[in-house]
Structure formats: structure tokens, C-alpha cells
Design goal:
It comes from Paracoccus aminophilus JCM 7686. There is one protein chain. 22% of the residues lie in helices and 28% in strands. The protein has 131 residues and is an alpha+beta fold. Strands 3, 4, 5, 6 and 7 form a 5-stranded mixed sheet that branches. Strands 1-2 form a two-stranded antiparallel sheet. Strand 5, helix 2 and strand 6 form a beta-alpha-beta unit.
Length: 131
């Protein structure tokens, strides 16, 4: 995996790569969008806690395939208000804190989700080359 950062465009706004190139045969894993739903059915309060739960859910899905955050090539995230942006970014940056090549990342402001208590949704695409 190689980060793509052309000098002809502005640097990323945060801790992510503009693009990521993947070579060779490999395995791709895509999570569905994960809402901040704990295994017991509860939803944490606040955008930061919800973003952390979304990433925890994505981590569990990736782990099921033997993957982890370092295999992420793209993160798509959705928040219900611009005010949630810093909390989401904090959770995302924590999730990527030990990742060397940062994935591409997109954040979109949306009107809402299936239930009003949800503030954040995250989906991850991951790839690993096979020998």
C-alpha cells in the first residue's frame, strides 16, 4: 500500500491520505456502515463516544477477517452536524494512531440516521496483499 500525495494539490486537511494505491493480488474487506450500537443494544451519548464505538465495531469486523486498522485503505464517515466534526476526527485519529500509511478518508454531514440518537456512522474498506 502506498500513500498518494501529489505536490500539485493542497495537503490533506487532517490525518489522512488523498489516495492510496494497492498492488498485486490480495484480499479486500468492506464493512457496512457502523452505527454506535453496543453489543447490549445501548448507544453511547455524544459524538466522540459514538465515533469510538463505530470504530470499535469496524475493528471487530476487520478482526474477523484477520485485518486491523493498518489495513484500512478508505474510511467513509457521516455525522449529523458540523459541530460533531472535531469529536469524530479525534476518535478517527486515535484509531489510526499506530498506522503508518494513512487511508483515504471522507466525512459527510447528513440529515440523520434510522434512529434520532445516532450521531455518527463509519464504514471502512481494507486491503491486504497476499504473498
Amino acid at each position: 500500500m502506498k500513500a498518494l500525495a501529489p505536490s500539485s494539490i493542497s495537503a490533506p486537511f487532517g490525518r489522512y491520505s488523498h489516495g492510496v494505491a494497492l498492488d498485486g493480488p490480495g484480499r479486500l474487506v468492506a464493512t457496512s456502515g457502523q452505527l454506535a450500537l453496543r453489543a447490549d443494544g445501548t448507544v453511547p451519548e455524544g459524538a466522540y463516544a459514538q465515533a469510538r464505538q463505530c470504530f470499535a465495531n469496524c475493528t471487530a469486523i476487520l478482526a474477523e477477517a484477520g485485518f486491523g486498522p493498518a489495513d484500512a485503505v478508505r474510511i467513509n464517515a457521516f455525522v449529523t452536524d458540523r459541530s460533531h466534526f472535531p469529536d469524530y476526527m479525534r476518535a478517527r485519529d486515535e484509531w489510526l494512531s499506530e498506522v503508518e500509511v494513512l487511508p483515504a478518508s471522507t466525512l459527510v454531514i447528513v440529515v440523520g440516521f434510522t434512529r434520532p440518537e445516532f450521531l455518527v456512522e463509519v464504514e471502512v474498506t481494507a486491503f491486504r496483499s497476499q504473498p
